[in-house]
Amino acid sequence: MGRNPSHLDFTLAALKGSTGFQFPYQMNIAARHFDISLLSHFPCSFNCQPSLEIAKKNLQMMQQLDPSLSTEFEEALKTAVIYTESQGVFLLKNPRMEDGVEGDRLYYNGLMGTKDNQLCQVLRVEDFIKIKNKGRIVISGLEIKNIGIMIFR
User: Fold this and answer.
1) Whole domain around residue 104: which residue ranges?
2) C-alpha torsion sign, points 140, 141, 145, 148
3) Count of domains in the chain?
4) How high is the mean pLDDT in each 10-residue block of the chain (153 residues)?
5) Burial class of residue 65 (count of CB atoms within 10 Å of its CB; 0-12, 13-18, 19+)
6) For residues 152 and 59, what is the distance between their CA atoms, to the nearest angstrom?
7) How far is CA 150 from CA 58, 66, 70, in A?
8) Is the whole-model pTM more than 0.85?
9) Nearest-angstrom CA–CA distance, 9 and 1
10) Which of 93, 111, 121, 150 is the most buried (most CB within 10 A)?
């Protein structure tokens, strides 16, 4: 009997155990869907200091061995992430937060996605999303629930 790989993915569990939705870029485990990660495990939360220390040591080693690759990793990890179990994983490049009366707006410039679907198409057209909380966003007037939103700086 085959296993469902999503049952082995604990990204949303790590987010649920985290305070807030903005974290150090070294903790970006969602980018592993694009073969980019400094951690080989799922941290208990994105606020986990021991995991952050491991990620920083891994980046330091990479900087010593291949400075240009470490620069590429840093840039790729400094993204916002929309994480869904059914619609895919999306990295929003060059994220910038703007606090407003109607909620926080996250502006971005560029997108990488694991799926080319309706959500991906909407994200390509828009240049910002409204963040209600770490599990809910609004894009193009449509509220999307049961997702994970994370910003890695």
Assistant:
1) 5-152
2) positive
3) 1
4) 59 96 97 97 98 98 98 97 95 90 84 96 95 94 94 96
5) exposed
6) 15
7) 21, 28, 22
8) yes
9) 19
10) 150
